[in-house]
Amino acid sequence: MEVKTRAPGKIILAGEHAVVHGSTAIAACIDLYTYVSLRSSLSENDDTLKLHLKDMELEFSWSIGRIKETLSHLGSPFPSTPTSCTIESIRCIAALVEEQNIPEAKIGLATGVSAFLWLYTSIQGFKPATVVVTSDLPLGAGLGSSAAFCVALSAALLGFSDSVSLDKKHQGWLTYGDSDLDLLNKWAFEGEKLIHGKPSGLDNTVSTYGKIIKFKSGSLTRIKSNMPLKMLITNTKVGRNTKALVAGVTERTFRHPDVMGSVFNAVDSISKELSVILESPALDDLSKTEKEEKLEELMEMNQGLLQCMGVSHASIETVLRTTLKYKLASKLTGAGGGGCVLTLLPSCRNSKEMSVNQQSENAYRNSHSTCLCKHSHLCSIFLYSVLCLLDYNYQCYQEQLLIK
Ligand SMILES: Nc1ncnc2c1ncn2[C@@H]1O[C@H](COP(=O)(O)OP(=O)(O)OP(=O)(O)O)[C@@H](O)[C@H]1O
Ligand SMILES: C[C@@](O)(CCO)CC(=O)[O-]
Ligand SMILES: [Mg+2]
């Protein structure tokens, strides 16, 4: 039997980091996915668990005997009871990961492989299988690659187990029901914990339920918006690690609790105002322009507060300066420290101001050519960095998690 799943990445319109400390955040899915295929062993003699990270050209393999020897004390599987990995189990899993000798240049993947082993053994137990992972998402760039990985993996593992009610004979994509989504979101959160340290749950929740959500202290509210927004996503290509950035903000909060408390409160207000704007009807072009201008201002204010938290970066500031030349507002998205920047492309701007759109679209189309890069500072940013120009209509992006 084979199960294939996919789960989307995300952008955060407001509230990253502050959401870890209890503030409201607004996030939406994007149409870039992580895909997982889980296939049971074809031959009786094959007694191994294989993980193939196809984009990275890495293959890992453990004998089931070795996994049992290390983890059988856990009493797995327990698919219906999402459970946190204890410090002792983290140590055991780390030993299994270390044996695989991940190349130094790709050592960041070790946490993803640990999350895989925890989710696999907890949900499937000690059965041989082959798991293949591919992704449209850049890893460690703020678009929720870790969450999409954990959600797609949990979905595949649960789809394989008897703890969710799926028509196993169905051909083609299926969508999980709400109670199954709740279960898989909880498992994905446990995987995220192994990658992020102290995640808020925002990324796995938006990847699990899809569309656009408001999220605060672990609970989500779906946002109903008829307001199409065009967002440019620029990848600075500066690598960073969400776990370290989240820990840095927490340390700053210990040093300056009152100041950071005020910063988090301000972010909470920004997210709340942003959700009201998204949900209010735009009756004509004028009110749409006003709404977009307010959104731009809120994005700029959020970016200022993210700078206060210490998670901006010179590469992010360069994108901000460049887009500002064209009167476009931007903010980092995700954990910051590099990674991706969001720019709102307003629908009602004159052509001169919007020339940045044209240039970035050109850069996107020519993204394999280097000549543009040499001739234009603007394009040198966008040439290698524009990920996708999203015609970002909340009504269109209703993709939820799908299972095949
Ligand atoms: N397709 C994948 N295969 C294996 N591991 C993955 C995959 N996608 C993500 N990961 C794991 O997640 C890590 C990146 O997660 P991280 O949280 O740092 O960044 P992100 O999720 O892309 O950005 P953000 O959390 O800011 O949205 C990788 O180093 C790896 O351990
Ligand atoms: C930085 C953060 O707020 C978002 C990362 O995409 C971390 C989290 O919410 O878990
Ligand atoms: Mg992440």
TrEMBL record:
One of its GO terms (cellular component) is cytosol. Pathway: Isoprenoid biosynthesis; isopentenyl diphosphate biosynthesis via mevalonate pathway; isopentenyl diphosphate from (R)-mevalonate: step 1/3. Residues 293-345 form the GHMP kinase C-terminal domain. Gene3D superfamilies: 3.30.230.10, GHMP kinase, C-terminal domain. It is an enzyme of class 2 (transferase). It comes from the Eukaryota. One of its GO terms (biological process) is sterol biosynthetic process. It is found in: Cytoplasm. One of its GO terms (molecular function) is mevalonate kinase activity. It catalyses: (R)-mevalonate + ATP = (R)-5-phosphomevalonate + ADP + H(+). Its main location: cytoplasm. Residues 124-210 form the GHMP kinase N-terminal domain. The keyword Ribosomal protein does not apply. Keywords: ATP-binding, Cytoplasm, Kinase, Lipid biosynthesis, Lipid metabolism, Magnesium, Metal-binding, Nucleotide-binding, Steroid biosynthesis, Steroid metabolism, Sterol biosynthesis, Sterol metabolism, Transferase. Its EC number is 2.7.1.36. Belongs to the GHMP kinase family. Mevalonate kinase subfamily. This is Mevalonate kinase. It comes from Dipteronia dyeriana.
